[in-house]
Amino acid sequence: MIRVLLADDQALVRSAFALLISSAGDMDVVGEAADGAQAVAMARAERADVVVMDIRMPGTDGIAATARIAEDPDLAGVRVLILTTFESDDNVLGALRAGASGFLVKDAKPAALLDAIRTVADGDALLSPGATRALITRVLAHPDPPGDVLAVLTARERQVLTLIGRGLSNAELAEELVISPLTAKTYVSRLLTKLDARDRAQLVIAAYESGLIHPRR
Asked: Could you tell me the pLDDT band of residue 131, with boundaries at 50, 70 and 90?
């Protein structure tokens, strides 16, 4: 069972999500938090696998809460799925940098939320295709100047990072590079270690910020 914690300051929203998630046979709602501070405490107390986190909450917001979860060694296995309003929420990039594994628009279909939770729980990043990648592109239209992050990577690893930034899965990496799925997974693990990245979401950010991928305008 995937243990899910809901963090949203609107009780009605939490209740609706709780009903939906509880209807799935492979998920269990282990708690509901009204703000970020509660979310962090409950993630630890309830041993949640995934925190479905709203960004805008009173007190400790979703970005600060995500950062606390990502920085806590005791919560290393906890993944954060950010909820956002697609057109207006440029804080998504901050949440991804803080350690979120991806995000979903609040008006997504119910099945999309369940699929997103499963994706994040499996250790993948919910960053492609479509609206998610479009938002990443928009908020990264003016990335920070490239640093020396690529200096530690081999040419092959840079190629893999570029493809990850474009949204390819491990299976797609293997097909594109004509390698085995296991080798593709090994490359991803190596990149996570070399770039000190929490998960695939942060590899996507690194691909953009290093200049390997140039956002479309």
From this structure: very low
Q: Mean pLDDT highest for which of 133-137, 154-158, 169-173?
A: 154-158
Phi, psi of 181 (to 5 degrees): -55, -35
Tokens for 8, please give them: 């949203």
The CA distance from 39 to 178, in Å, is 43
Alpha helices in 79-213 (DSSP H): 92-98, 110-121, 131-139, 155-165, 170-177, 181-194, 200-209
Q: Take residue 99 and report the two structure tokens written for it.
A: 């350690």
Tokens (6 digits) for 53: 């986190």
> Has residue 209 got a pLDDT over 60?
yes
Q: Which residues contact 90 (CB under 8 A, 6 or more apart)?
A: 139
- Please name every residue paired with 5 in a beta bridge, in sequence order, or none if there are none: 31, 51
